[in-house]
């Protein structure tokens, strides 16, 4: 059982990945203090409007909500660089469906820092007119940033794509949340977008990448809780 005391309830969880000191933040972003770099994965902007076009009506505020949370994190941390790990847009037309207000907010965020768009499977060609640089992956120091984890990759891989989530039993209740999953050599970030959902860390697509064990950092929005593999519930 995980005890939710003041020592555990904090807005970030620090860990080391291939020698780099990193922080998993409560909003689902990753901060690299030594490089003043903020990393987010799977924004899936305009997912709501994509579903609406197919007749599944969702509240059309997912992009605005996601950008507001990201803007808050940028204002607090003031990073020099932002890396978006792919699937920043839900599809090839997503940027065209952004409202003028949301497009203006995103454009301002991108213009204020060194912004890197990693190409994802949903957005293999992120729109150039919003600024920033588009890359298939990004290598910096001991880390390599890409959209989807690769079997046999070098240590220090940071990726997204799978939208990991996990569950743990606390003293008061069962807690399920999106999460970071890492083993000191590889890290997968949670999805940052509002409508993204999640895949259990026990799914073979995720657990098969961490055959020697792993820890998760549950990101609840208010706190980050580090949980070893042995304490996780099997059903999420």
The number of helices is 5
Averaged pLDDT:
89
CATH class: Alpha Beta
Shape, principal axes of CA atoms: globular
Helix percent band: 10-25%
Count of extended strands: 16
Outline the structure in words.
With 236 residues, the chain is α/β, with parallel strands linked by helices. The protein has one domain (12-231): 4-Layer Sandwich (Purple Acid Phosphatase, chain A, domain 2), CATH 3.60.21. The chain contains five helices and 16 strands. It has helices at residues 47-53, 62-77, 94-97, 100-111, 204-207, and strands spanning 12-17, 20-25, 30-32, 37-40, 81-84, 114-118, 133-135, 137-140, 143-146, 157-159, 164-169, 174-182, 186-188, 199-200, 215-219, 224-228. Strands 8, 9, 10, 11, 12, 13, 14, 15 and 16 form a nine-stranded mixed β-sheet that branches. Strands 1-2-3-4-5-6-7 form a seven-stranded mixed β-sheet, with no helix packed on it. The longest helix has 16 residues, at 62-77. It is globular, with a radius of gyration of 17 Å.
Compact description:
The chain has 236 residues and is of the alpha/beta class.
Strand and helix map with partners:
Blueprint: E1 12-17, E2 20-25, E3 30-32, E4 37-40, H1 47-53, H2 62-77, E5 81-84, H3 94-97, H4 100-111, E6 114-118, E7 133-135, E8 137-140, E9 143-146, E10 157-159, E11 164-169, E12 174-182, E13 186-188, E14 199-200, H5 204-207, E15 215-219, E16 224-228
Helix pairs in contact: 2-4
Task: Name its key features.
236 residues; 18% helix; alpha/beta; Purple Acid Phosphatase, chain A, domain 2; seven-stranded mixed β-sheet
């Amino acid at each position: 059982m995980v005890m939710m005391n003041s020592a555990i309830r904090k807005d970030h969880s620090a860990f080391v990945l291939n020698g780099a000191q990193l922080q998993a933040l409560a909003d689902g972003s990753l901060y690299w203090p030594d490089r003043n770099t903020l990393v987010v994965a799977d924004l899936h902007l305009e997912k709501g409007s994509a579903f609406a076009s197919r007749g599944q009506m969702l509240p059309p505020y997912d992009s605005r909500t996601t950008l507001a949370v990201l803007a808050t994190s940028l204002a607090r941390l003031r990073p020099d660089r932002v890396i978006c790990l792919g699937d920043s847009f839900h599809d090839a037309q997503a940027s065209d469906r952004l409202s003028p207000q949301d497009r203006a907010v995103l454009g301002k965020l991108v213009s204020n820092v060194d912004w890197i768009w990693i190409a994802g499977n949903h957005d293999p060609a992120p729109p150039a007119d919003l600024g920033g640089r588009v890359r298939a992956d990004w290598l910096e120091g001991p880390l390599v940033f890409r959209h989807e984890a690769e079997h046999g990759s070098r240590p220090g891989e940071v990726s997204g794509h799978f939208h990991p989530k996990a569950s743990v039993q606390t003293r008061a209740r069962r807690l399920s949340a999106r999460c970071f999953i890492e083993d000191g050599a590889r890290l997968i970030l949670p999805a940052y977008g509002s409508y993204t959902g999640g895949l259990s860390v026990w799914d073979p697509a995720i657990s098969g990448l961490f055959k020697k064990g792993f820890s998760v950092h549950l990101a609840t929005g208010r706190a980050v809780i580090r949980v070893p593999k042995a304490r996780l519930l099997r059903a999420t």
